[in-house]
Amino acid sequence: MKSLVFLGIMLAVVYVAVFLFPGHVNKLALVKSAVEQGQFWRFFTHPFSHLSLTHLITNLLAFTIAIVLAVELKTRFKNFSVNYFLAGFLAILPLWFLLKFTILGASAAIYAGFGLVSLDAPKYKIKAWIVLGVFLALIFTKSAVTYLSLGFGGQFVVDIEQALSHFSGLGFGIMMFFLFAKMDKVSLEKKSCTLRRCHEKS
Amino acid sequence: MKRVKTYIPGLDEMLKGGLIQGRNILLSGPCGSGKSTLAMQFLYNGVMKNGEPGLYVTLEEQKEKIYQDMALFGMDLKKAELTKQFHLIGGPAATVKTYMDKVDANMTHIIREVEEVVKKNKIKRVVIDSINLMTMLLKTDDERRRALASLANSLSNLGCTSMLLSETKENSMDLSRYGIEEFIVDGVIVLYLMRQGSIFVPGIIVRKMRGSDHDKEIRVYKITSKGIEVYPTETSFADV
Known about the structure:
The structure holds two protein chains of two kinds. Chain A has one domain (2-201): Rhomboid-like fold (Up-down Bundle), CATH 1.20.1540.10. Chain A contains eleven helices and no strands. Chain A has helices spanning 2-20, 24-28, 32-36, 42-45, 53-72, 77-90, 93-99, 107-118, 128-150, 154-191, 194-201. In chain B, the strands form two sheets. Chain B has a nine-stranded mixed β-sheet, sandwiched between helices. Chain B has helices at 11-14, 35-50, 63-71, 77-82, 93-103, 107-121, 131-136, 141-157, 181-184, and strands at residues 3-4, 19-20, 24-29, 54-58, 86-90, 125-129, 161-167, 187-196, 199-209, 219-224, 227-235. The longest helix of chain B is centred in the middle third of the chain and has 17 residues, at 141-157.
């Protein structure tokens, strides 16, 4: 628990520090033209950069919720952190290669955190699909409202791109949940084979 | 209540027909008293005479050594193994401990493994040789008590009749090493080596058998070329 809280505080400090660094968006965001010029580090730096104060505060709040959920559900620090950092870099990659839109911010990683903890909801007798449904509603409501009020236009494209990157993060988190579950199962099987292994050796 | 015959000459008479199915029995005694032999006879006879699948969990010896030792008493464990009804798992405690450390396993995993083997092979008779070594892997008496209770409950719930072997100190009248084992099990059979002048006379007593009447005197037994033989009418007069 302490490790998760420490991770949360450290990342929040880093996000704020990067935000205070002048010109961080131009230097860190995942922009098609910059990547084409060979600035491949942007694949790793974009989660640390936030476009505006609102973007930063929204993400910090969402990140706090993800950390609190992980602490409540006793998610392992290793699982949460591996999922979070990998998602930050990997979750949006397929989408970016497909659509080549500019990406910045930690929201994909945060949604990966939500994806990971969502499937642990049955620990508290809450159905996982209800929690996932809430997150899906959170992800797509804004773009749906934009479409209904403004139709298919520039703002809708921006909103749906953002929603898709969040969705990608959520999906990545779900995938990681199953991967960790599989790894736990393999590890348990290995541990529960001690006597048989020793018998084979002897 | 259904009885499970041990087919050990004389012992079933002391037990008034055999052990009660699904119960855990603590078999304790000092080094060299024949605990492993008696327990293996219980298992081997179940397989060969009654077709009941048996599991021997060892933390004492290597498989080959056990097979060689038991062959001296006419128990052909290789043949029993071929029937797919005799199973032996485990190895020397040091090897088990090393492997446990390597894969970060604990007693819960060991118990889970025993359960898995029991379920998979529809085991009816189980021997754990020995619970001293098994519980040595734990640090506190509380942990030992919990692990033993968990193992005993688990085996009972799976319908197994089990013998849990416990080594007592030489010349001791204790029923078990830690003094907690006898409270967890349903029955206690104790083997004694009683001094009579310059020799030790083996004696056996059924100290506790929940749900069943039993012989309450110390009887003489011998380790013969066919294994343990109990003389259920002979009383030992050794000074114990």
